[in-house]
Amino acid sequence: MVMAVIGVVPILALSSTLLPLVKAYSFNIQSTPRQCQNLTVTITGDGGQAPYRLLIIPFGPSPLPNNTEVRRIQDVAFGAGQTTLSFQLRYPENSQFVAVVSDASGFGTGGTSVAATVLAADGAGSCFDASTNVSPDFVFSIEPPNQIVQCAATRIWWDNSTVQGVPSFLGIIPGGQSFSVPQGSLSNVPSQGTGFSWTPSVRAGTTLIIAGGDNRGAGSAGSSLNTVSAGINPNNDCLNDNSPSSTPGSPAGGSYPTNTSGAQVGGGGGGSSNTGAIVGGVIGGVVALAALILALFFFRRRSQNKQSTKERPVDLLQDDDDTGHRGELPQYYQPEPFMMPEPSARVSTDAGSIAAQTDDRGRPLSGVTSTSRSGTPDLLGFGAAGTAATSTSGSSSGRKSGMPRPLRAVNIIQHEDAGPSDAPKADEDEPETIELPPAYTNIRSETPTRPA
C-alpha cells in the first residue's frame, strides 16, 4: 500500500506540472526526406492560427567531400488557409536538418523536431552544386566567442552595413522548445559593431542553435550550433520552470528517419507531453526503490541470524580425535587401583622388619613400614601387567608379564593403639607430660651423584 502511494504522488505531480506544455496543434512530416525531392508537412490539431510557416535549419556537418556546405536555411510559408505544405528539399543525402513550425501567435508554437536525416533520392538528379559553398546574406558573431553560458551575459553583434532592416534572432532546441531571442537595446562597440546583450535562460547541456535573419527572411544570416555550458561559476538565478530545454516531451514532426539506415523516430506531435515515458520512468523508479528496500531487509535479517548463532563450547581437557572411543572417559580420569602387598611377603622397612613396639606403660604403638608399588596408573586396566611389585626374600608370584614397571616407595601406617591409657594408681600422681619439638636427627642428607 505504501508503494502504491509513493508511485501515485510523483505521477500526479508530474502530470500537473506538464499540463501547460500541451499544445493545441503540431505538425507531421508526411513523406520521407529525400535528396532534392518534395517534402510534405501537414498541420495537426485545430488550435493554431494561420498563416503557418515552416523553418528548415541545417544540423551537423556537411556529408559532401571537403565539407562543402550547400545547405541553406529554408523559410517556407503555407498557403493562405492551408494546413499542408509541399516543397523541394535541396539537401544532400546523409545530411540532417531540424524543422520548426510557427503560426500567427509566435515562433515555434507548433513544435520542433529532432535532427532528421535525408535519404538518397529515388531517381537521378541534383538540385545543388556540390563544389561550391553557399554563404549567408550577412553574418553575426557571439561574444564570448562561439559559446553560450547559462545565465551569463552574451553579446550578439553584426556589421550594420550588411543588414536590411532590423535583425532578429531565433533559438532552436532540437526536440525541445524553440523561442525568439529577446533583443535588448542596441549598442555600438568599435571592435565589434552593432549588437545587444542577452542572458540565456537555457539549462546547461542543452543543444542550442542560434539563427539570424532580417527583412530578407528568417535565417538569412545563417546559424550557429552551440552547447550551453555551466561556466566556471555556475549560476541558476535566471532559470525557472518555463526555461527552454530539450526534454519537455516527445519531439514534433511525427515519424521520420534520424540516421542513414532509415531508422525512424516516432513523434506524437511537437507539443504533446510524453506522459507514457514519464509514467514508465516513475514506475521504474518505484520498482527499483522497492528492490533496494527488500535487499536491505534481507541483508539485515541475515546479519541478525548470524549474530544469534551461539558458538560451540570448546573442551580443552577432552579433545576428541579420530582414534578415540566414543562414550569412554578420557585418560586423565582413569581410575588407579590400590594394590595391597601379599600377606606371605616379607616387606622391607627402614628398621628391617615390622616390629610391634610399646611405650613404657606397655601400650602398643603404631608401626611404620615401607613398600613399593607402581607409580604410574594402569590405563589398560589391571591384570597381569597391573600387579604391584614388592621386595621380598622369597620368590615372586610367578606371573610372567615382561619387564617390571618403575616403582616408588609408599609409606603404610597402621595404627595399633589399644584404646585409652591405663588409669594411674591411687597412690601415684599423674606424670607430667612435656612436649618437645622434633629434633630432625633422622633426616639424612643425600650425597649428590656425580655424572659419569
Automatic annotation (TrEMBL):
Compositional bias ranges of the Polar residues kind: 442-452
UniProt entry keywords in alphabetical sequence: Membrane, Signal, Transmembrane, Transmembrane helix
UniProt feature, compositional bias: Low complexity: 243-263, 385-398
Region entry Disordered, spans: 235-270, 304-452
Transmembrane parts of this sequence: 277-299
Signal peptide region: 1-24
Domain of life: Eukaryota
Protein name (Swiss-Prot/TrEMBL): Uncharacterized protein
Native species: Pleurotus ostreatus
